[in-house]
Design brief:
The chain has 386 residues and is of the alpha/beta class. The chain has helices at residues 4-13, 28-35, 48-60, 71-76, 78-89, 107-123, 135-149, 169-186, 200-210, 222-230, 246-256, 268-273, 277-284, 314-321, 332-344, 369-382, and strands spanning 18-21, 43-44, 65-70, 92-97, 127-129, 152-157, 216-218, 236-238, 262-267, 289-295, 298-299, 305-306, 325-329, 349-354. It binds thiamine diphosphate.
Length: 386
């Protein structure tokens, strides 16, 4: 295996000086090093296609860009790659992690894992599969190839090639101070900054206390897993892939059944990936939608990379987008009270819960996607989500 630091060093040595992307845990140690580089710090993008756009702009301005993404993000950025980078010819190195490699991974990665090489082939994007032994040659190849061809090229990173797991303990520990600095900078005098004091698990427990039989659509990652550990029930829809879409599923649900309250447990990274949903909710104004965002200011599920929510008051954005009732809370009692009120009053509701970046040791969701789907749908038909 090669260390994240060694990969970062190789990239820098080959002239890459602009880094952006959406994190994947397979490259968490690489991103951790890039985040601390002062001359070319990693820029956290909200979506992979936004990262592809940033890379094009950076190249136009004279940089050598590198975009890091999970292969699921290859799907998200197909159009940006096809009708921007490849059409204009914008050189970039796209580092794509290979989840679902050899069919061994969580269900949400299996199909994308199987077709990852074909997606790159269809796009006619040259790529190499990284190995620890050939890493130096792979990066050298990519740097040369993108210049010669004047187009993006990819390096695909299978599991267990780059070391993981040593990266972000420091970032998580540093979160409150850093967040405080940022929040102080952006908060106006009339509105005190929010200081996270409870973990996401404590916040989820508090929110769950207020929820009776209402269905809950969970964003992917640890939000699903921690809520599952608090209490499983058919009325929990665990969205284990499709980052960003929990809010869309919740909105679809409540538009189809306006009389029924629908709760969404979202993350800051998830919300930012699909920020436009705020405008849709604001415009459509579903009265019974309760959108709860657990904002830990990091991409917790992939190793605590800093999220752009740091310093952005998501609650104020939701209010500006037209949510009827918006609250920002930081204690367990306030989380419970806010969700309780939201369930019995007119919305759409937005509850921002600032949490620490602490992560509980919780199991994966044991159900197959079809099981999650069927029991959830049946629970809605029965009116029995408990
Ligand atoms: C399109 C896409 N890109 C990246 C990922 C990898 N990924 C899974 S969960 C996650 C972080 C989610 O962050 P957030 O919504 O803030 O929740 P947290 O884990 O911090 O609670 C990421 C980046 C993904 N699943 N899909």
């Amino acid at each position: 295996m090669i260390s994240g630091r060694d990969v970062a060093t190789l990239l820098t040595r080959h002239g890459f000086d602009f880094f952006t992307g959406v994190p994947c845990s397979l490259v968490e140690d690489v991103i951790a090093v890039l985040e601390t580089q002062h001359d070319a710090p990693y820029v956290a993008a909200v979506r992979e296609d936004a990262a592809v756009g940033l890379a094009a702009g950076a190249w136009l301005a004279g940089r050598r860009p590198c975009v890091l993404m999970q292969n699921s993000g290859l799907g998200t950025s197909l159009n940006a790659l096809a009708s921007l980078s490849l059409m204009y010819g914008f050189p970039a190195l796209v580092v794509v992690t290979w989840r679902g490699f050899e069919g061994k991974d969580a269900p949400e990665h299996i199909l994308t894992g199987r077709i990852t090489p074909q997606i790159l082939d269809l796009l006619e994007m040259p790529y190499r599969v990284l190995s620890a032994d050939s890493a130096a040659a792979d990066v050298a190849w990519a740097a040369k190839e993108m210049d010669t061809r004047m187009q993006p090229v990819a390096i695909v990173v299978p599991p267990k090639v780059v070391q993981t797991g040593n990266a972000h303990a420091k970032t998580a520990a540093a979160t409150p101070t850093e967040a405080r600095r940022q929040m102080t900078k952006t908060a106006d005098a009339a509105d005190a900054p929010l200081f996270a004091s409870i973990s996401r698990l404590t916040a989820i427990k508090a929110a769950r206390k207020a929820i009776g039989s209402e269905p809950i659509v969970h964003a992917n990652g640890y939000i699903c897993r921690e809520s599952f550990s608090v209490g499983d029930r058919p009325g929990n829809f665990y969205m284990i892939g499709s980052m960003g879409l929990a809010s869309a599923i919740g909105l679809g649900l409540t538009l189809a059944q306006p009389a029924r309250a629908a709760v969404v447990f979202d993350g800051d990274g998830n919300l930012l990936m699909n920020f436009g949903i705020l405008a849709m909710v604001g415009g459509l104004a579903p009265r019974r939608l309760v959108h709860v965002v657990f904002d830990n200011e990091v991409y917790g599920s992939t190793g605590n990379q800093i999220s752009p929510s740091r310093g952005v008051r998501l609650d104020r954005v939701a209010a500006a987008a037209g949510y009827a009732a918006v609250r920002a809370v930081t204690t367990a009692a306030d989380v419970e009270a806010a969700v309780r009120t939201a369930l019995v009053t007119d919305g759409p509701h937005f509850v921002l819960v600032k949490t620490t970046a602490e992560e509980a040791d919780v199991p994966r969701i044991p159900y197959s996607p079809a099981e999650i789907r069927d029991r959830f749908r049946t629970s809605l038909e029965d009116g029995q989500t408990q």
